[in-house]
Amino acid sequence: MAYFARKVIHATCPERYFIQYMQKQQNPFGKATYSLTFDFDFEKDIEAFPYVLDLLKKHDIKAGFAVIGKFVEEYPDIHLRAVDEGHEIINHTYTHPDNPHWAPDRYFNKLTYNEQKEEIERAHEVFKKNLGIECIGFRTPHYGNLHTESVYPILAELGYKYSSSTAACGYKGYGAPSEHSHGIIEIPTGCSVHFPFAIFDSWNMLRKKTPFLGDDKLFVKEFADTMKIIAEHNLFLTHYFDPYDITENGKLSNILDIIKKNKINTALYRDLHF
Ligand SMILES: [Zn+2]
Asked: Model's pTM, two decimal places?
């Protein structure tokens, strides 16, 4: 469809555009499925960890956690609890460059191949030693902004199966998980019904671009409107949230209720058949 026609449809009927776009995806699960993931980047995210796990347990939902090697070394118990309760650990590097705690002046995409490899490999070893797991998935710190093609051969060399480091909007295959390169599946994170060209996450929606002007109720409503369509049309969607931002004012509890209410299947990235 021509660019202009798409713009008109989006302006007049964003729901229809979203449905049309999402229906072009190959849904790897064949039924309405949602993958919930979290990125633990700061101390305040770690502080929110027990509450996140309590809520997930209450709703009987498993999630993916992109975690940093340094935090796993510092707080092994809470990460171990996540593993014991059936959640998935995603390699989010050892120091999360440019994390203010340990790597304020380093940017992942500016590191050399060997430095990137060391960041990923070291986190992998920490997970193995402290959590007893062999990680198979990766997420670049800050996604698209610091994401580089050089991760794919590194991941392949380490025997990884997937990366989730890009945004669905504009990604090939209409954002469906698909093989990117070196045999690695890329699982782009998704959008929402009224913002099909954005990543629907707590950082972009509530902080950075602030289209919702920090309105938690509107954020939850957008999630509810989106999930209704996912359920009705048997679509696959995945998002990531920052634990600290999403637990404020009951947003996470509301989101988990919405997933359950719509009877949407929840899956981990490792449930994709590689
Ligand atoms: Zn991060």
From this structure: 0.92
The single residue listed with the structure tokens 């390699």 is 91
In a domain, 169, yes or no: yes
C-alpha distance from residue 98 to each of 33, 227, 252 (Å): 33, 33, 27
CA distance 64 to 136: 12
Compute the distance from residue 143 Cα to the ligand 1 centre, in Å. Answer: 8
In a domain, 122, yes or no: yes
Domains identified in the chain, total number: 1
Residue carrying structure tokens 């019904």: 193
Q: Which residue segment(s) compose the domain that 136 sits in?
A: 30-271
Question: Is the bond preceding 98 in cis, omega lying within 30 degrees of 0?
Answer: yes
- What does the pLDDT look like over 32-45, one tens digit per residue? 999 999 999 999 99
Mapped onto helix, strand or coil, the DSSP state of residue 118 is helix
- Residue 96 Cα to ligand 1 midpoint, Å, equals 7
- The residues with which 181 forms a beta bridge, in sequence order, are 184
225 inside domain:
yes
Q: Is the Cβ–Cβ distance between 256 and 59 less than 8 Å?
A: yes
| Element (DSSP H or E) covering residue 79 | helix 76-84
CA of 142 to the centre of ligand 1 (A): 5
How far, in Å, is the centroid of ligand 1 from the Cα of 90?
11
- The phi-psi region of residue 16 (left if phi > 0; otherwise alpha if psi is between -120 and 50; otherwise beta) is alpha
pLDDT tens-digit map of 216-253 = 888 999 999 999 999 999 999 999 999 999 998 899 99
> How far away, in angstroms, is 15 Cα from ligand 1 center?
30
Task: Kindly list the protein residues that place their beta carbon closer than 5 angstroms to ligand 1, a single-atom ion.
Answer: 39, 41, 141
